[in-house]
Every structure is written in C-alpha cells, then in structure tokens.
C-alpha cells in the first residue's frame, strides 16, 4: 500500500538509503501503486517495489554498503 512518509518505508529502504533516495523510492512506489491498480494485490505491490528500486538506481549507485549519487545524470 502507498507510503504517506519516508518513515513508513520498509526497514530495508529506510535504514539504507539516503534521505533523497528515500523520497525517490516513496514517490515512485506510490505512482506505480496507482498505475498498477488493475493487478492483483500481491503482483501490484511487487511491481511497485520493482519500479521504486529502478527509480532509485537511476539516480544512485551502491558502492560497498553505501548508496551514492550517480555522477552521470
């Protein structure tokens, strides 16, 4: 289900991504949640998480244990 704030994000997102990346994740997830409303509940949530991670990976890259802004955007 959609996230009202970054504090509501799963721990795997909230505890590991920088604040800006968390906002990207939340926004992308919420938009995908609306976009895939016609899918079944489990598939809808899975797709929304995939879209959200893809959005984060367009702006950030993981180096070791840290997510850093990409230089190429």
Describe the protein's architecture and organization.
By secondary structure, the protein is mainly alpha-helical. It has one domain (10-69): Rna Polymerase Sigma Factor, Chain: A (Orthogonal Bundle), CATH 1.10.1740. 55% of the residues lie in helices and 11% in strands. The protein has 3 helices and 2 strands, in the order H-H-H-E-E. The chain has helices spanning 11-14, 19-35, 41-59; strands at residues 60-63, 66-69. Strands 1-2 form a two-stranded antiparallel ribbon. Helix 2 (19-35) runs antiparallel to helix 3 (41-59). The model has no long low-confidence stretch (mean pLDDT 95).
Fold topology:
Blueprint: H1 11-14, H2 19-35, H3 41-59, E1 60-63, E2 66-69
Antiparallel strand pairs: 1-2
Helix pairs in contact: 2-3
């Amino acid at each position: 289900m959609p996230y009202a704030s970054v504090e509501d994000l799963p721990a795997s997102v909230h505890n590991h991504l920088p604040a800006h990346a968390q906002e990207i994740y939340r926004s992308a997830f919420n938009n995908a949640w609306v976009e895939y409303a016609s899918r079944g509940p489990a598939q809808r949530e899975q797709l929304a998480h995939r879209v959200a991670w893809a959005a984060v990976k367009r702006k950030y890259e993981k180096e070791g244990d840290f997510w850093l802004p990409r230089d190429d955007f």
